[in-house]
Design goal:
- By secondary structure, this protein is mainly α.
- 68% of the residues lie in helices and 5% in strands.
- It has a 4-stranded mixed sheet, sandwiched between helices.
- The longest helix is centred in the middle third of the chain and has 31 residues, at 196-226.
- The two termini are 19 Å apart.
């Protein structure tokens, strides 16, 4: 096994000296993850620009409404006059404008009805309908507060209480009711947290380790074609030692690639604890070993670099698609059943459990056993198929 170790060290050294392989295996996954996170990472948050025409510019309650809307995360207010709003709506530059009428504050203070107008093109879009609902909710809250104030004023008329005392008493009661509501709403999250890091990162890691099969298959086929593998046997290296060296080198390459991505995720997103990181390294090692055996099998079954490339790409993409790498597959359908045939499914499951739930090795026994079984079977099959030239094993 000492000679196999030398072969593995040479392969790893060559890998880090090859800029093309290094960019593909290490830098490209980081760039793709950054692009995907930047493009989709903020979509779980509601973000919209609210175009507002405030005809009640100096009104107390219109200002209160705008202040409450500004307090919502994701809402940006942009003030327009009526002419600007009509012009932008006409040109379809905006889909909806919120118009606060001139008598908004005065009508509320006097106990009269008033209304907010939503001027929109067609349906206005889903985001604007959500915004309209939020504006209605804030307006209803202001309406209830004003009606309560007017009702208290009426009830206390003639009691000698000043306007200031009435407002202080209302503020006190409102604060108490807000801190101790009659009905409380609790959020209960089922399953993994829906963030882009836990959704994309495991898939990026496993996809590129599986793509390394392509590099493995190409390299072995080319070395076999050139007679490099056969010449190595003249150095008293046995076929078994050569096979072991190739397996260790390919496993180490996939493992190092995954570890670097995990370290970056830990540094940038603080995803791991020391214990969960160690757990993830075990998963990465087992998955890399399984992929290494698959790469050697594909290389042994193909006779040219082109064959190795296309077969490896097809196999890798098939495994990525079947595993639901970036889109969750719901149980109970054919694709969910087929996903059990993909090695990525089990690696993704393990990584996501570690990232979202800090899972231990004990709770990951099923995916680890499946990947270990693939590794064991792959080692036997790949050794039987391993060839140093076109005709010998």
């Amino acid at each position: 096994m000492k000679k196999a170790g030398f072969i593995a060290l040479k392969e790893i050294r060559d890998f880090f000296q090859d800029r093309g392989d290094l960019i593909f295996s290490l830098i490209l996954p980081v760039l793709i993850f950054a692009l995907m996170y930047g493009a989709y990472g903020q979509q779980l948050q509601f973000n919209i620009t609210a175009y507002v025409v405030n005809q009640d510019a100096g009104g107390q309650y219109s200002q209160q409404l705008l202040t409450q809307l500004k307090a919502h995360p994701g809402i940006t207010l942009k003030m327009l006059n009526q002419e600007e709003a009509d012009s932008r709506l006409e040109r379809s530059n905006i889909q909806m404008a919120v118009v606060i009428p001139e008598d908004f504050s005065a009508s509320l203070a006097a106990g009269r009805s008033t209304q907010i107008v939503f001027k929109q093109r067609g349906h206005g879009g889903t985001a604007n309908q959500i915004l309209a609902g939020m504006v209605r909710g804030e307006a209803d809250q202001i309406n209830r507060e004003v009606r309560l104030l007017n009702q208290v004023k009426t009830d206390l008329d003639g009691s000698g209480a000043s306007q200031q005392e009435i407002e202080i008493m209302l503020q006190t009661v409102s604060a108490r009711l807000e801190s101790e509501p009659a009905v409380k709403v609790a959020d209960e999250t089922l399953g993994a947290r829906p963030d882009m890091v836990s959704q994309f990162l495991p898939g990026i890691m496993t996809m590129f380790v599986l793509f390394a099969i392509n590099l493995t298959a190409q390299t072995l086929v080319e070395e076999r074609r050139r007679g490099t593998l056969e010449r190595l046997l003249t150095t008293r290296l046995t076929v078994g030692e050569l096979f072991a060296g190739k397996f260790i080198a390919n496993t180490a390459r996939g493992f190092v690639q995954t570890i670097i991505l995990m370290l970056l995720a830990w540094a940038v997103f603080n995803l791991f604890t020391p214990l969960s990181f160690l757990t993830a390294t075990v998963v990465a090692l087992v998955f890399s070993a399984a992929c290494s055996t698959l790469g050697i099998i594909l290389a042994s079954l193909t006779r040219s670099q082109n064959q190795a490339t296309w077969v490896a790409v097809f196999f890798s993409m098939l495994m990525v698609m079947l595993s639901g790498t970036f889109v969750e597959i719901s149980p109970g359908n054919l694709l969910y059943s087929l996903s059990k045939l993909s090695l990525n499914t089990y690696a993704n499951e393990a990584f996501r459990e570690i990232i979202t739930n800090q899972a231990s090795l004990g709770s990951l026994s099923h995916p680890l056993l499946v990947m270990s079984g693939v590794t064991a079977a792959g080692l036997i099959i790949s050794r039987l198929l391993f060839r140093v030239n076109q005709g010998k094993s």
